[in-house]
Amino acid sequence: MAAANSVILTPNTIEEAWQMKEKYGRDAAFMMGGTTFQLQREKGVPLPPYVIMLKALDLKTLQRQVLDGKDVLSIGADVPLRYCMNHPILKAYAPVLCRAAGAVGSPAVRNQGTIGGNIGYRKGDAAASLLALNADVHFIDEKGEQVLPLDQYLSLMQEKAALLLAVKIPLPAPALAFFEKVGSRETFSPSILTVAASADWTPSGRLKHVRIAVGGGNQTPQRMQAVESCLENQALTNAAVTTACDTILEDYAPESDVFAGAEYRKMAAGMILESALETWKKEEVSNAPEK
Amino acid sequence: MPLKNDGKIRPDGIEKVTGSLKYLTDRRMEGMLYGRVLRSHYPHALIKSIHTKDAEELPGVKAVITAADVPGLNGFGIVTPNQPVFCEEKVRYMGDAVAAVAAVSKEAAEEALDKIIVEYEELPILDTMEKSLAKEAAELHKEGNILHRAEQKRGSAEEAFASCDVVVEETYETPRQMHTYMETEGGVVVPEKNGGITVYMGTQHGLKDRFQLSRILQMEEENIRVVSSPMGGSFGGKDELNVQPYAALLALKTGKPVHIHNSRKESVRAGIKRHAMKIKMKTGADREGKLLAHQTYIEADTGAYATLGPAILEFAVEHASGPYDIENVHTKGLSIYTNNGVAGEFRGFGGNQITFALEGQISRLAAALNMDLHDFQAANMRKNESPGPLGHRIAPTNGGLLVLEAAERIRKEKEAELKEKQPPGKYIKRGIGTAVTMHGGGLGYGRLDPSGGMIRLNREGKIEGVFGFEECGQGIVAVIENTLVQAFECRREDVCFLIGDTEKVPVSGSTTASRGTSMVHHAVQRLKPLFQQQLFERAAALLDKSPADFYTGKGGLYKFETREQAITYRELAEAFPEKTLEVQTTFDFPVTPDEIDSGHFLYTFGSVVVEIEIDMRLGVVRVIDLQHAVAAGPVVNPKGYRGQVEGGGVMSIGYSLMENAAMTNGQYDTDNLDTYMIPSIQDAPAEMKVEAIEDLYENDQYGPRGVGEIGTVAVAPAIAEAVFQAIGTHITSIPISREILMKLGRKENRYEARV
Fold first, then answer.
1. Domain stop point among B555, B588, B621
2. Is B698 part of any domain?
3. Are B85 and B245 in contact (CB under 8 A)?
4. Model confidence at A2: pLDDT above 60
5. Which of B57, B308, B610, B642 could form a disulfide with B718 if both were Cys (CB 3.0 to 4.6 A apart)?
6. Of B529, B557, B588, the domain-final residue
7. Which residue of A has its CA nearest to B678?
8. Residues on A contacting B at a C-beta cutoff of 8 Å
9. Does residue A160 have a pLDDT over 60?
């Protein structure tokens, strides 16, 4: 029905893809794996008049590279989530991203869906973990090719069009990393809540570079900066954990939907953070001789 | 002993697993048109006018029909046909049909729906039972807003409470559950040369559909052929008519085959659901733990129309005291019309809701008496010859005690296992819960419940079982095959079956109420001697022997004298090509001799043992293990038995933990499977065990009972009990609220961590 009325465009280069978007503006949308479009079609949202399929662009590279003297993991926007879930390089350097990718949809969705689509969707499970991993994104917009931190990119995308090319995760990855998704069932569920966190230890056993991101429901994953600052340069005492959990209750403002109420999401975010910090505390104890 | 895999493949197994099986909705025919139904825009409104002209003029549109095009009764409903085929003056729920179109493509049909202009005048929406019962509420039907009242009274519960040492009182709530069959409603209706039609659409009772369609179409039943198997699931949801009338009317109007297949969204919107119920119970016992009095008040949200709402309420009323001997019982129930989705037939038939409440009461009383739950249940369990739950005579049975003891044994084993397990993490609580139930089979006293079947030696020399049952995935075809193989001691390749075609099958009654297996058994037991006698007489004539010289076996008849094969079945068939060898029987489902409306006679018993883990951070309950013990007589088809009980169990994990077709202002909150969640494979325990208690009580002549429903009934109360065992809190509603569990967890963890 809707598909029959849409023109499918298949650019061969990034430039061509971007020109098509500039030409048709709001009447055109980029498509990677198409899983989000399928979800929307089932909801009765028609496809836009022009669909720009990005499959012919070569955005499938996943590699560790040195870029401007910086060591990064680069993941092409068209890399399927299934690869992210199982890839040995990611498993070694960014296991939280593997976990997040594995939490998306079902095996069929992960075969088809891509990391770029998951970010472009703005509600994907992977985005929260990438925020925690301090990822940058490489994209093209009206100003040309650019690299920006993911959180800036997510807010920029609200305003104007952009074509995501790759995600760049700086290495070494944080020593501490955490990801958890709460769905309505064990798998193949929209996320009620997604919490991702990362940090490093200072030599004196305090946290540094704390990054905490929360997403879920209809909301784009966002960093919880107030929570991050109350943990920054803190040892993981009971008091610090309590303060952080109380802060997330104040700082995080989720919405209610058919899956869960805002109150539940808030409390669950607090509980997940508490359990994540406790896991870190245990790691600290078990790694104590190294410090 | 848990049931083992017998290694046999069900007759439809390979086709289903490989996806090669063609369902009725897969049918395509030359010149076929696509039908679509226009459903109401409002949950409750007056129809001021319907304009179809613009739709009719669209290219590709072949017919647009409304109430004016219904030649016969503009209504359907198995018992009370009060659901309009097309609404004329008033709509009562979002699934109400207003018009239908047939067009050359799905797209044209879809576009035509948009062009039909219906003017409505909105009415206040009665979206809760409270609103429907309010004095000022508008009347949804001529008879008011109460579809049905049912009551059962034995002794005097009200007086007996005075002599109870402990009384517990609670209100339980259960959700509207969706059947969620993989194949949504639909198929093709073909107009025939004689003016009649052939309906290729799934149903649980082809002959009943034929009757209902004849009433709507004003057409002789003989001119309507209903082909209704196989189906991609039903669970009660396709028992009532759904889109058959629309495809039939459109096919007759256009003279072309018309295909209708509900989208999932349309299926959610128009299809029936399990009744949401609110059940208030007050139950009392003496100090020694004897149940003395039990009072129940049920409110069932039956939605806009009747279908089998009254029977479901009566089933719930009947099973309110379950398998327990209680002298003083008073149960009242109301089935209440609302502007919500129509509630009706669903696996368990009112038993699931009432058992959740009853077992909740039993657990609360045991706790209040400081008694072990099992000991309390055992002390009150019905005796072998106790009357049924309506005080009526039933087939004597010790099934209740047997499943209770099995559950207790399994529970103790699990408890020992848990002690060996690693202690759970800080936020995890573990619990084991049990529950027990009894479940009536057949339609019950006072309801026409005929059955029957036919066995013939067909032209290919196969022993063919012919039944009016339907295959909806439950495995009736394997039951027929196994029953014939056992009866004639022959090979699987010696038998075949024919079902699901009103032109070719005898009356067997509906494929509902756990009756199929039982009725196939009864029919074959009656037909076996008649059929064998005819086989033997033929062989005797051909071989110049006496009929008494033969017995049936693998591939043909054997001689007693030499134990050698005398003649094959094929040879017997080929010897008399003109004379079909065929025997037929009709009989009724066994009923109680006592005149008591809806009372059942044959009951199945089930117990459930469940191990759960609760993540107290999130209030998430995970079912780690689910085991059933079922007393339903001899197992006819081990794989089917296990599949039914395990599948029912997982369906009820959904019912207990996540499924709720909730409605706001008469509209479904969850309109598709991206929001209505059913258990995934990862929500089901990795391994489930089913223990079949096959021994029947002494002198029981009634053979195997069906197990289509029993696996669904006691799962929710077992999970609720496991929650109680894990955290000491009794829950009152399902699906179990994560928020409630989480709040309990927060309190406790704060305490443990920081004081």
1. B588
2. yes
3. yes
4. no
5. B610
6. B588
7. A185
8. 1, 4, 39, 42-43, 106, 182, 184-190, 238, 242, 258-261, 263-264, 267-268, 271-272, 274-275, 278
9. yes
Identify whether A260 is part of a domain.
yes
Task: State the CATH number of the domain containing residue B203.
Answer: 3.90.1170.50
Q: Considering only alpha carbons, which residue of chain A is nearest residue B109?
A: A1
Residues A190 and A277 occupy one common structural domain: yes
Instruction: Say which CATH number the domain at A165 has.
Output: 3.30.465.10
Q: Which residue in the block uniquely carries the two structure tokens 């008649």? A: B530
**Chain A closest-CA separation from residue B215 CA (Å):** 36
> Does residue A275 belong to any structural domain of this protein?
yes
Q: Are residues A183 and A105 in the same domain?
A: no
Residues A157 and A183 in one domain: no
Q: What is the pLDDT of residues B255-307, one digit of tens each?
A: 999 999 999 999 999 999 999 999 999 999 999 999 999 999 999 999 999 99
Give the confidence band of A211 by pLDDT, cuts at 50, 70, 90.
Answer: very high
Summarised one tens digit per residue, pLDDT across range B340-357 is 999 999 999 999 999 999
Q: What is the pLDDT of residue A43?
A: 84
pLDDT tier at A184, thresholds 50, 70, 90: very high
pLDDT for B749 equals 60
Instruction: Name residue B258's amino acid.
Output: V
Give the separation between CA A272 and CA B220, rounded to whole angstroms. 66
The CATH number for B463's domain is 3.30.365.10
Q: Tell me the per-residue pLDDT of B497-531, one tens digit each, with 9 for 90 and over.
A: 999 999 999 999 999 999 999 999 999 999 999 99
| pLDDT of A289 strictly over 60 | no
Q: Are residues B421 and B385 in the same domain?
A: yes
How far is Cα A102 from Cα B258, in angstroms, rounded to an integer? 43
Structural domain tally of chain B?
A: 3
* DSSP output for B543-580: HT--GGGEEEETTEEEETTT-SEEEEHHHHHHH-TTS-
Same domain, B413 and B476: no
Predicted confidence (pLDDT) per residue in B174-211, tens digit: 999 999 999 999 999 999 999 999 999 999 999 999 99
Cα distances from B384 to residues B398, B403, B696, in angstroms, run 5, 13, 11
Same domain as B618, residue B540: no
Q: Which domain holds residue B100?
A: 13-123+182-233+238-270
Domain range holding A73?
62-170
Asked, for residue B250, whether it belongs to a domain, the answer is yes
Query: Which residue among A187, A189, A258 places its CB closest to the CB of B670?
Result: A258
pLDDT at A284: 77
Query: Which residue type is seen at B356?
Result: F
What is the total count of domains within chain A?
A: 3
Could you report the predicted ipTM of this complex, rounded to two decimals?
A: 0.95
Residue given tokens 């128009």 in the structure block: B270
Instruction: With H, G, I as helix, E, B as strand and everything else as coil, classify residue B381.
Output: strand
**Per-residue model confidence (pLDDT) at position B552:** 98
B742 chain-A contacts, CB cut-off 8 A: 264, 267-268, 271
Is residue A291, in this structure, part of any structural domain at all?
A: no
Please check the confidence at residue B704 and state whether its pLDDT lies above 70.
Answer: yes
B149 falls within a domain: no
For chains A and B, what is the number of CB pairs under 8 angstroms? 74
Instruction: Say how many C-beta atoms besides its own lie within 10 A of residue A61's C-beta.
Output: 13
Tally of CB atoms within 10 A around B384: 12
Residue environment code for A212-221, b if the CB has 16+ CB neighbours within 10 A, otherwise e? bbbbbbebbb
Residues B431 and B543 in one domain: no
- Is the N-terminal amide bond of B735 cis, ω within 30° of 0? yes
With beta carbons less than 8 A apart as the criterion, state whether B626 and B706 touch. no
